[in-house]
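User: Teach me something about this protein's shape.
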Amino acid sequence: MTLEEIRGKDNAMENTDRVQSAGAALEELLLAAKKHDYLTVGVYESAKVMNVDPDSVAFCVLATDEEYECDIALQIHFTLIQAFCFDYDINVVRVNDIDRLADLVGADETGEPKDAHCILVTSPSANPWKDPSLDKLSLFCEESHSVYDWVPTITLPER
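Assistant: First, the predicted structure itself:
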């Protein structure tokens, strides 16, 4: 076994731990933001917030699964949201378990699951909200950007 092969295995294990840690941090962030009413859930609702007050957006989560991968309209929305986030230096991550994400953000007034394809964590400009999980996720995104992974994928922890 060569040194490169050993380093490759170490890097793969380290990357898996990093992604799992980011998944736990994302779950903590979403639960804390929900408690403080700092979540915007839904593609159209998120687009409205970004248009009206982009400085209030602290983090963006885009979610899809195999059922929606071929939805061209949704992919166009994702591209526009990502471009907007890049323009305003908002970190973006992707999650592949939309059902789990919908469980975390809850249901709407009618009891139906919310459209969890896009979730924004917002923070009032007058009184910025700080959360350790947001700091962890920002670091995760910064590390991902350093290896040209502009929209890293996070796996949420199993329940």
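Now, about its shape. The longest strand covers residues 57-63. Helices lie at 3-35, 43-52, 72-87, 98-105, 132-146. If you'd like, I can walk through any region in more detail.
User: That's plenty for now, thanks!
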